[in-house]
Design a protein that fits this description.
oxidoreductase activity, NAD(P)H-dep_reductase, globular, NADPH-dependent FMN reductase, FMN binding, 185 residues, 7 helices, 9 strands, two-stranded antiparallel sheet, Rossmann fold, alpha/beta
Length: 185
């Protein structure tokens, strides 16, 4: 399983939240890897350009994983441009039929629109998006010294990790008329 951090901030609360999700993965008997987009040189997508080594490596990490958790800070009511660009470099080969968990972190109120936007994109790529999602609102006060201060919130993040493992190999839905017409990525 891979957890993709859509934040480039040094003291990223999104990254820290994904680390807690990965604790849930381990608790469920799975293994997980944190993918920090800062470690990849993913240029703004130009479909006419040949993919560089980092793009190929990033895609391979997603394609070969059993499941994916996407984590993002909320910017202007949606998910980060860094994560958007990373997803744009991917397509059905990386997402189709794959279980995807969602996490959004906000400095203010509940980041529901960021989660909704990610859910729509993943579904357009024919991923199976977990019904359980996790959000960290008011993240500035949710963490102290890198630790969550709300046990309920920590449980929700760990649950996202456990459910990602539980449903990582869920049987895909049979093809439908609509699936043959999804132009997608």
């Amino acid at each position: 399983m891979v957890a993709v951090s859509g934040s480039l901030r040094n003291a990223s609360r999104t990254r820290r939240s994904l680390e807690i999700v990965l604790e849930g993965v381990t608790d469920a008997g799975g293994t997980g890897e944190l993918i920090d987009l800062e470690e990849y040189m993913l240029p703004p997508l130009n479909p006419e350009d040949e993919a560089g080594d980092d793009v190929v490596a990033f895609r391979r990490s997603l394609r070969t994983s059993d499941a994916i958790v996407l984590g993002t800070p909320m910017y202007h009511g949606s998910y980060s441009g860094v994560l958007k660009n990373a997803i744009d470099h991917c397509g059905f080969d990386e997402f189709e039929g794959k279980t995807v968990g969602l996490l959004a972190v906000a400095g203010g109120s509940f980041p529901v629109t960021a989660l909704d936007h990610l859910r729509s994109v993943c579904r357009a790529l024919d991923a199976w998006v977990l019904p359980h999602q996790a959000a960290v609102p008011n993240s500035g006060s949710a963490f102290q010294d890198g630790q969550l201060v709300d046990d309920g919130l920590e449980t929700r993040l760990e649950t996202l990790g456990r459910r990602t493992v539980t449903y990582a190999n869920i049987e895909p839905e049979p093809p439908t008329f609509e699936s043959d017409h999804n132009e997608g990525a």
